# Entry
Amino acid sequence: MNKTLELRAIEMGKNIVRMTTAAGSGHPSSGLALVHIVASLMYKQMRYDPANPWHPGADRLVLSEGHAVPVIYAAYADLGGAVGKSPAEKRALTLDDLKSLRELDSPLDGHPNPAEGFPFFDAATGSLGQGLSAGAGLALAARLNKIDKRIFVIIGDGESREGQISEALDFIIDHKLTHVCPIFNCNGQGQADYVSPQQSAEVLTRKLKAFGYKVEVIDGHNLAAIARVLKKVGTNETPMAIVAKTQKGWGVDSLKDKTNHGKPLPESEVPAAIASLDRAAAERKVPATGRIPRPPAPPAVDLPERPGRIDIEPFADAVKRAKLDDAVAKNKLSTRRVYGMALLALGAADQRIVAVDGDVSNSTFANIFAKAFPDRFFECKIAEQNMISVAVGLAAGGMIPFASSFAKFLVRGYDQLEMAAITRANIKIVGSHSGVSLGADGPSQMSLPDLGFIRGYASAGDGRGNPAAVILHPADAVAAYRLTELAANTPTICYLRTHRSDVALIYPQDASFTLGGAAQLAEGDAVTIVASGYMTTVALKAVRDLAGSGLKCNLFDAYCLPLNCEPILAAARKANGKVLVVEDNFVGGFYSAVAEAAALTGEVKVVGLTCPRIPKSGKTGDIILNALGLGPAAIAEKARSLG
Amino acid sequence: MNKTLELRAIEMGKNIVRMTTAAGSGHPSSGLALVHIVASLMYKQMRYDPANPWHPGADRLVLSEGHAVPVIYAAYADLGGAVGKSPAEKRALTLDDLKSLRELDSPLDGHPNPAEGFPFFDAATGSLGQGLSAGAGLALAARLNKIDKRIFVIIGDGESREGQISEALDFIIDHKLTHVCPIFNCNGQGQADYVSPQQSAEVLTRKLKAFGYKVEVIDGHNLAAIARVLKKVGTNETPMAIVAKTQKGWGVDSLKDKTNHGKPLPESEVPAAIASLDRAAAERKVPATGRIPRPPAPPAVDLPERPGRIDIEPFADAVKRAKLDDAVAKNKLSTRRVYGMALLALGAADQRIVAVDGDVSNSTFANIFAKAFPDRFFECKIAEQNMISVAVGLAAGGMIPFASSFAKFLVRGYDQLEMAAITRANIKIVGSHSGVSLGADGPSQMSLPDLGFIRGYASAGDGRGNPAAVILHPADAVAAYRLTELAANTPTICYLRTHRSDVALIYPQDASFTLGGAAQLAEGDAVTIVASGYMTTVALKAVRDLAGSGLKCNLFDAYCLPLNCEPILAAARKANGKVLVVEDNFVGGFYSAVAEAAALTGEVKVVGLTCPRIPKSGKTGDIILNALGLGPAAIAEKARSLG
# Structure
């Protein structure tokens, strides 16, 4: 068997060289370090069907060091693996396809990218250090679905410096995920220089043992050693990690030097590289030809049919289920608390609903769900990067994960969120305590540029007819309940932004909410005010005060980005042609969206009141809002100036 | 001595209880766990002058677990430490001031916040896991300034789950920073639940040893043990870490339970808490009164005078210094390469210029600086979170740090960047390979929502007359050179956004650039086009093509956010009243800024061409730009439609 695999490894090496040279870019030396490990995995150890990479029972491979991806393409083409954006569009990848590496119409993207037609992968990688977390999420999903599936994660040694790796290592031990196995590719060479001694095979081994792993140190070019340890994955009580000593540019003399990271060979040097690989083959007595081994088939899996849409019970029933009758009776409920109530209702309605949180579930109120469905709640502790990527893995495993923390701390996972967007991962992230109304805790706990960041994705397409992200920003309990439901039913990344403070109900309990929507809460012929989230309560007060003094304003509660601004602009045109947008964050959110829409025609003027400076602590949210010129009095004053 | 300190610890405990109750929020139990460690540090072990927290020779304390800050306030008020936004405004903090915790006009913010008048701290904390990196930056700056200063960093056990801690631990070993000492406060209780066994004192100790630390495990309530280990800091060849076993809510029975995280006591329970602390004092035979010890004075430090402004040599001289004559002769220079050239010129002009990079210095071209000034370049390896926070520490130590990576990977440090903004840290971050023109590597390497995020800060004030951040986006080599200089001379966070591709020179070598500026590159009476960065080269081609077919457009190169839009709008009013903004990223950047400005009056219409979907790989940047409708032909077509 090993001679057969040795030959495949040599062929993979040649194809890595050829395809990166054809592309004119790529990282051949990184791929060459992995030819034996990947050959063992993809031809022999992994149980999967190359013709059906969507098979739910298949073992999975996460290439965390995404720049090494040509090694995967080489093996997958050799196996005739299926590519395509869906099973209906699938075709077998050919060796000839490898020449299309990195081309616009090729499924062979520069880094692993399942969404562009390479379903062998579950997660886009390339921003480093994220794959192990995604693998942990896949393992959790498999456990929930009772599938005996192994997840192999290949991590670069330099990459293992990323703190998210240590977060994932802790998470795997906490949750006893024996079926996910990190494989550290220790070739000692980074991009700009050698890898730090802190990431040497020796120190990595010491660290992994300290984390609680059973560690296997192997020669990453010895197929017998590789097979011996890969077979053990999932058979122990203790999670296992593999430290593989490899050589960057293995088999190709001209690619072994550290200065070659990321550089393909010029066309003229390809023959020498092929000859070099032939010499390596001769040294190892590899036969010139041989059959292409087929990996073992995945186990049959019988997953239940799932409904397309999840409908949750009426608001009043959910209030009872969550024992929040008192709060409703007092007409005081924070949107964060209702998020927990909605998640509970969703969890009762559908087994796919799962939740992760970063040690703040008693603040985000994910704990309402956790208490009812402990098997579907995964505590990630204070490690938000890992949390977001775990959610990506859970989504790839068929779950609908909700990941919650303070909105401010979710920023810690924005790089991971971007990779989720590239993956087209159906994850929901929930940021509580958003905006400045958090108050006393001060600016380190306030999310202010969050809407500006995520609106970038909300304004872009995912290439499948959806926005790449949707922002949902509830103003009251009813909105929070229905927008959480809407998030669960919207097949793209949803960012639900909740607030700390209790607010009175604005909407009737049977109100409905739609993507892109804004609800008109007041009508008038003066300025048209647009508010969102907690600011809708603040603006309502201003609008009532203004009405009391004779100025009747339109008021819209804009609860979604992307936002259909036409109803707002139409109302403004009918009134005095002026819009005032008020927000508890920096520019970049609803104000920018309305201004952009208005500026297309210039018919309506738009003014924004947003957070004007870095805030500080104040005893209450209202004190802060007033200090920043965002309180009801300031809104009313600005509205009066606009007539 | 210890009895004297024991009394201070008891008094601190009482004040922690009182001030959090007065504030109605805060984390008394976390502070109580630290009373002995902080008493030992602030009254005895740290060499500093409470009356002059700005003293450059003083030992520093970073409270990474920022929510425990009342313990610091209690000791500092007891010592009459100076508060105020500058030495000119300083006054002594009193015990009476403690009642103002978290009030709007108090320097006692909810979490450590040096910028609002508490200069004892160097870095805002409260988003967890960042303090050790900031401490490492302080230690690097001290080493550069030849100051024998120790930096103590207090880290929560739950907090140590944040991956950034492991990044900082590696960095400290790599750079042999024996003068920075992490102190892990192991009380076993998190917010939502107990701390994971992975962060127990035992496993933390095992991990720290594996990382290469000399580890001292102590009882965190034993002052003799605390003193014994603190004295060792900075005396060994090997960095040292302290694992302190503590009790959450020490001394106050009603605050020891885990459910109390973050909750102050109601007024009615304060007497019992004080009595509880009195009992703890009696058990330890602490005298009822005693003198307040003064910490030892810091060593005298003689730092050279620094000029206010750094002027760099003429462009042509810098080209020679960086040996880029050939590239200039060919008229092909990427803005990222010129960043390296400018950094070299800055480094030659001023010793405060330092650089950090995340294993991509041969791509960001920080390596041009690194080769010339190896003592002022700090390789952070693949760990961007740590890199940004190290820069914060370097800035607090008087340096002007430039931190570079791919713009996409800087997102990994956006939470850290926000904490830098709250700190008002004078750091410069440099994102290379920005936008979609990166091309072949694909979306995992492209920065697209970056301008949307950072424009939030650029549109807000820092409370000192500056924007909280400035975005500088050079279109060519001359712009890159001068905007790097401008970054060094602008006392706020600057984000320099560079591109991968070589471009021809647009500006004369003596061109000048100003904050808020945009340069008019073409005049006409048709549509007014606004471009930025690499898109200026693309738009220039479109404008030349349009001029060739008789349509004369205005073209502005907008190179700064915040942007003074008035010249653009004035030119548009003089022409056909229409503006087209073209960008290689998502909405939220220059398009949004111009649209917001135009929507204020409605006189000018604004259309944007921005990245419309999540991109994928394409062989070249121009292929991608064309595929996304952002190439010269698409710009020209849109311009024609606008007349």
Notes: Chain B touches chain A through 126 residues (CB under 8 Å). The longest helix of chain B spans residues 2-23.
